[in-house]
Design brief:
mainly alpha, 15 helices, about 375 residues
């Protein structure tokens, strides 16, 4: 989602990570919203494997936010980029809904109309609403982060981790909401991840091959701990408490320490990956990832092609179900990427970015005079 004209030499490992993180998000939605996770008997080995896949994919949104911090900390802040993103969101918000009504019929309520026209205010896309908030404060946040010493920055990250990761996760789990960040669906958590990604860019170290694979091991260990926690809680509830515990999925959260550790481990791994070929393909696909998100989670699109989709495969052999999950996730990714690639070409032909720049210049003049008044 960032201005991509910020690096003379891009870290292609990070561009690849954008693609991987969005694919993980799609697989997660297929398992959850698509009900693929319900296609195996409760407490069976097959069900356990699906929960392991869920744990492996759960950090997708965290990874996407970490890449924003890594890339944007050195970027020139451009308000026209935010306007362009808003136009992209508006286009998909209205366009997909209109197409759905043309194909399937039906009307529109006042609430739906307001949600379509005000996607940020109505939180139609939670990630973009959070990013919109973050982007507005980047002119102040980035200089602050650039001035911090390494020790000061580490203290900041420790405080963010204690209050908004551990504190937020515990308070959400206990339902006290003292440090709630809405289970990670909030600008506060996005800012915390942004600061973490920015740190990893500012004080980037070059790891040996062994160090790189240690980072990947953190991802694997974090994933296994997330998955194992559910089984541990199930054992305690069955043999100690004697009844099912409601919070058996407490570690399946964006804020969960195990998910955060896994996310950072995978992020560091990809930041160290050296890619010498395929730059144009990677950057082209990477540029469509935000569009992929907007399309596949749109309520009208999701209702037809994601929600409860896998219940029709309930009687398939488990191996067949796994093939369907990955094949359909690849298909969703490819179709949405193709649509957004076409949208990018239209925006370029219409010179949308230049139009956004004109809007910024037009607004800046009177606003600057107002702010500079004594």
């Amino acid at each position: 989602m960032e201005n991509r004209q910020i690096q003379k030499e891009r870290n292609l490992g990070i561009e690849l990570l954008r693609i991987v993180s969005m694919f993980l998000i799609i697989v997660l939605h297929c398992l959850g919203l698509g009900d693929a996770g319900k296609c195996a008997p409760e407490h069976s080995v097959q069900n356990s494997i699906l929960w392991l896949m869920t744990a492996a994919c759960y950090g997708g949104a965290n990874l996407y936010a970490l890449t924003s911090g890594y890339v944007c900390i050195r970027a020139k802040h451009r308000w026209e980029r935010l306007i362009e993103l808003w136009l992209q969101v508006f286009l998909y918000s209205v366009g997909i809904f209109a197409l759905d009504r043309i194909v399937g019929g039906g009307g529109i309520t006042w609430r739906q109309l307001i949600s379509l026209l005000l996607p940020v205010t109505t939180n139609r896309y939670w990630y973009f609403t959070s990013y919109f908030f973050l982007f507005a404060f980047l002119p102040f946040l980035n200089p602050l982060l650039e001035r911090l010493s390494k020790r000061q920055y580490r203290v900041l990250l420790l405080l963010l981790f204690v209050f908004f990761c551990l504190g937020g996760w515990i308070s959400d789990t206990l339902e006290t909401y003292a440090f709630s960040t809405s289970a990670g669906y909030s600008p506060v958590w996005l800012i915390a991840l942004y600061c973490t990604g920015a740190y990893l860019r500012r004080f980037e170290v070059r790891l040996s091959d062994a160090g790189k694979w240690k980072a990947f091991a953190c991802y694997v260990i974090g994933t296994l701990l997330t998955w194992g926690s559910m089984h541990a809680i199930n054992l305690v509830s069955d043999f100690v408490i004697g009844r099912e515990v409601q919070k058996r999925l407490m570690f399946y959260s964006y804020l969960s320490p195990t998910v955060v550790i896994a996310s950072i481990g995978l992020f560091v791994f990809f930041s160290q990956v050296k890619i010498k070929h395929g730059k144009k393909l990677l950057t082209t696909v990477s540029a469509t990832t935000f569009g992929i998100y907007l399309i596949h989670v749109h309520p009208s699109f999701a209702a037809r092609f994601v929600d409860h989709f896998f219940l029709q495969f309930n009687n398939l052999p488990f191996a067949g179900l796994l093939v369907c999950i990955f094949a359909y996730s690849i298909l969703l990714f490819a179709v949405c990427a193709a649509v957004d690639f076409f949208r990018i070409q239209i925006f370029r032909a219409l010179q949308v970015r230049r139009f956004c720049g004109w809007i910024v210049k037009t607004v800046k003049k009177p606003l600057g005079k107002l702010l500079n008044r004594k």
